């Protein structure tokens, strides 16, 4: 073997390694990107499912209040509750096509059949890595549940002829109230200008922050002494509260409101 041939072989080794590296590295990066996208999809679905569950629970409360007060249940309210639960900026941050308008609830039946709620959610996740040639993936979620519209349920007072002791609670409250008109139970909605709200403090000395559900341009805002949010509308869902009258024996473990004790 001549000196020239030996020198040529030495040069061929690093050249072949460069070619292999050029082929292998993109494949590895592609595989990593694919795994990252799949993990992102799993995380998004889990978060969406949690938001759907919590939104349905809150919608249960809203539905009963609306049915009693107006005789109607507004379907658009569920969308607002869902966006509040999942976060108003979640869709934008997690590549949901169309942002918040990408949460598609078309095909949902809300209280059309007695008190049954059928939720059909469709949304599309954009693929930032363009894995397998797919620029986006569409996901479907379905939920069927019942809402309470005043039917007789165990623990709720519909008959005033018994001698049981009754107390008052809210749907997600942690204490019970002896007095139905307790100031912690009944919300006294107040109004102030947007400029004034920054200087106001609630009963605990805390500041007021914009409500994520009804935030928008408004010169007049609404608040309560015991809340920490101000609202662009006095009809905001977050300002509503359903008061339930229940038997005291049904709420074991709940403490009595301190204000009711000393009243």
UniProtKB/TrEMBL annotation:
Keywords attached to this entry: Membrane, Transmembrane, Transmembrane helix
UniProt keyword Transmembrane helix, yes or no: yes
Transmembrane segment boundaries: 21-42
Protein name: Pilus assembly protein
């Amino acid at each position: 073997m001549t000196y020239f041939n030996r020198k040529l072989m030495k040069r061929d080794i690093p050249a072949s390694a460069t070619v292999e590296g050029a082929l292998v590295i993109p494949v590895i990066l592609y595989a990593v990107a694919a795994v990252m996208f799949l993990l992102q999809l799993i995380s998004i679905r889990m978060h969406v499912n949690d938001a759907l569950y919590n939104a349905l629970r809150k919608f249960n409360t809203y539905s009963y209040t609306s049915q009693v007060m107006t005789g109607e249940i507004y379907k658009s309210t569920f969308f607002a509750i869902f966006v509040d639960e999942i976060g108003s900026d979640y869709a934008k941050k997690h590549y949901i096509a169309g942002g918040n308008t990408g949460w598609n609830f078309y095909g949902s039946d809300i209280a059309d059949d007695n008190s049954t709620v059928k939720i059909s959610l469709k949304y599309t996740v954009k693929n930032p890595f363009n894995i397998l040639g797919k620029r986006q993936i569409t996901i479907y979620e379905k939920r069927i549940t019942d809402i309470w519209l005043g039917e007789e349920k165990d623990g709720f007072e519909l008959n005033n002829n018994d001698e049981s002791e009754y107390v008052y609670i809210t749907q997600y409250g942690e204490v019970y109230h002896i007095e139905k008109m307790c100031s912690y139970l009944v919300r006294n909605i107040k109004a102030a200008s947007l400029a004034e709200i920054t200087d106001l403090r609630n009963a605990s000395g805390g500041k007021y922050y914009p409500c994520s559900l009804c935030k928008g341009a408004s010169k007049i805002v609404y608040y309560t002494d015991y809340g920490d949010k101000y609202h662009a509308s006095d009809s905001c869902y977050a300002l509503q509260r359903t008061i339930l009258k229940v038997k005291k024996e049904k709420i074991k473990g709940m403490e009595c409101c301190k204000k009711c004790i000393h009243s």
